[in-house]
């Protein structure tokens, strides 16, 4: 499939032939869902923790005599049945991550790229280079109509462009190796440089 290539000032800079195996698939929500869930679970900190019966701060003295009270036979205020007692089987630090094969992760990325191409939310630019001036880049982004955009560059991000984009709300930039399903789907517009297209095609074939 062919797509126009533009410059940051909006002028045309030729066209590019995109690989159908990466940008021409019929997007499948089930594949995208599995990859996004894998990403978000791996990103979850898993540091939730509660105090158990052995960890709460209370005296270990028996609270009242065993017999003759007419009540239950309690031995400790740390019991979960008492207020401020320990929590029974509460959350403890653990990893929420699970495995997903590399082959399936690549497939998910191909479907994410295809989803953006099919929705008409894919833009290819000649390069992502800037002098590092936020005001100038913000004006170009506004003229292009990018409200929530993810820019993916080649192997390395241009330092001036990254510095200029840092203070623009809704604009993110990643190197090609950082391209992932969650960030692609989260943004309204996916912007690829020509170098990013070449890198992604080499990575995902």
UniProtKB/TrEMBL annotation:
GO CC, alphabetical: ribonucleoprotein complex; ribosome
Domain of life where this protein originates: Bacteria
Stored InterPro entries: Ribosomal_uL4, Ribosomal_uL4-like, Ribosomal_uL4_dom_sf
Pfam families: Ribosomal_L4 (PF00573)
Gene3D superfamilies, A to Z: 3.40.1370.10
GO terms of biological process kind: translation
Keywords from the named record: Ribonucleoprotein, Ribosomal protein, RNA-binding, rRNA-binding
GO molecular function: rRNA binding; structural constituent of ribosome
Annotated segments matching region Disordered: 65-99
Protein function: One of the primary rRNA binding proteins, this protein initially binds near the 5'-end of the 23S rRNA. It is important during the early stages of 50S assembly. It makes multiple contacts with different domains of the 23S rRNA in the assembled 50S subunit and ribosome. Forms part of the polypeptide exit tunnel.
Family: Belongs to the universal ribosomal protein uL4 family.
Subunit structure: Part of the 50S ribosomal subunit.
NCBIfam families assigned: rplD_bact (TIGR03953)
Name of this protein: Large ribosomal subunit protein uL4
Organism name: Ruegeria pomeroyi
Gene name in the database record: rplD
């Amino acid at each position: 499939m062919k797509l126009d290539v533009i410059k940051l000032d909006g002028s045309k800079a030729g066209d590019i032939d995109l690989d159908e195996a990466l940008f021409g698939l019929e997007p499948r929500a089930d594949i995208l869902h599995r990859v996004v869930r894998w990403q978000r679970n791996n990103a979850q900190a898993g540091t939730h923790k509660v105090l158990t019966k052995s960890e709460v701060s209370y005296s270990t003295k028996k609270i009242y005599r065993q017999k003759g009270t007419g009540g239950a036979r309690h031995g400790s205020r740390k019991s979960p049945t008492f207020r401020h007692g320990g929590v029974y089987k509460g959350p403890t630090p653990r990893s929420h991550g699970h495995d997903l094969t590399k082959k399936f992760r690549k497939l998910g990325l191909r479907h994410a790229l295809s989803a953006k191409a099919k929705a008409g939310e894919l833009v290819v630019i000649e390069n992502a280079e800037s002098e590092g001036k936020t005001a100038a880049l913000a004006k170009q982004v506004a003229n292009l109509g990018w409200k929530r955009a993810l820019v993916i560059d080649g192997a390395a991000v241009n330092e001036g462009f990254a510095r200029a984009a840092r203070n623009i709300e809704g604009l993110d930039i990643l190197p090609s190796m950082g391209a992932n399903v969650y960030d692609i789907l989260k943004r309204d517009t996916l912007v690829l440089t020509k170098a990013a297209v070449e890198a992604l095609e080499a990575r995902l074939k």
